[in-house]
Write a structure and sequence with these properties.
- The structure is a single chain.
- The protein is mainly alpha-helical.
- The protein is 66% helix and 4% strand.
- The protein is built from ten helices and three strands, in the order αβααββααααααα.
- Strands 1-3-2 form a three-stranded antiparallel sheet.
- A hairpin with a 3-residue loop joins strand 2 and strand 3.
- Helix 2 crosses helix 3 and helix 4 packs across helix 6.
- The longest helix is centred in the middle third of the chain and has 22 residues.
- It is elongated and about 60 Å long.
């Protein structure tokens, strides 16, 4: 038997949306850290740029104390170098850094590629999605976005190998890869077309189940950065 409530059943009006002032913001040091890191990775702050505490405090809207805390974290990560009473110098990407990242990537990615074959339908579908996204970003001139998607494409292959330790090691290269990728795309805008073609080839080899072809393609794709470090770009 259906019962009826004797109380007023009209729905109350929705509460007003919280104002920006009531939204909880991240800690000040985190906001400065994110601001500077994004600026460095996306090349708004080029290598060789000197950042001052005062300028950063004004840009983010905080005091100088959290700026110092954020800059110390970024120095530990190797993105800047602090100079007392002067500021923080954005470190350029060095040839040695490129060589080290390339060597590590090849070791991890080539091993993971062998374990990824035969590729699962989920992996193929995800790589197809990322490749389509990267093509759209390249067409729109979004080089920073294309660099992020490039990194995701390779990370998916590494994760598919099933080795969590290697996946975490690879993730530690994330910021260095993104920074290098954006710098390369700006310096060599024609490279994005070649990158997309090589990603397509890697995907085709995964579809066909040819592990050695996948490994060879990844090796050549990553090796290009070594030529860049030695001034032998081709």
């Amino acid at each position: 038997m259906r019962t009826c409530c004797i109380y007023d059943v009209r729905m109350p009006s929705a509460p007003p949306a919280p104002s920006a002032a009531h939204l909880k913001q991240p800690p000040a040091a985190d906001r400065v850290y994110d601001h500077v890191k994004q600026g460095v990775l996306e090349r708004h702050y080029e290598g060789g740029t000197l950042l001052t505490e005062g300028e950063l405090a004004e840009a983010v809207g905080v005091s100088r104390t959290p700026v110092r805390e954020a800059l110390l974290r970024l120095q530990v990560e190797g993105l800047i170098k602090l100079y007392p009473k002067k500021g923080a110098l954005v470190l350029p990407v060095s040839a040695q850094e490129i060589a080290d990242v390339v060597e590590t990537r090849q070791l991890v990615e080539e091993h993971a590629a062998r374990k990824a074959v035969p590729a699962s339908p989920r992996l193929i579908a995800r790589l197809e999605e990322l490749l389509a996204q990267q093509k759209e970003q390249a067409a729109a001139g979004d080089l920073a976005g294309a660099a992020v998607t490039d990194r995701c494409f390779h990370a998916e292959i590494v994760r598919s190998g099933g080795n969590e330790i290697l996946s975490r090691l690879y993730d530690q290269l994330r910021d260095r890869q993104l920074r290098m990728g954006v710098a390369v795309m700006h310096a060599h805008p024609d490279r994005i077309t070649k990158t997309l073609a090589e990603h397509e080839q890697i995907l085709d080899a995964l579809r066909s189940g040819d592990a050695e072809a996948v490994v060879g393609l990844i090796h050549g794709h990553v090796e290009w950065f070594s030529h860049l470090a030695r001034g032998e770009v081709r």
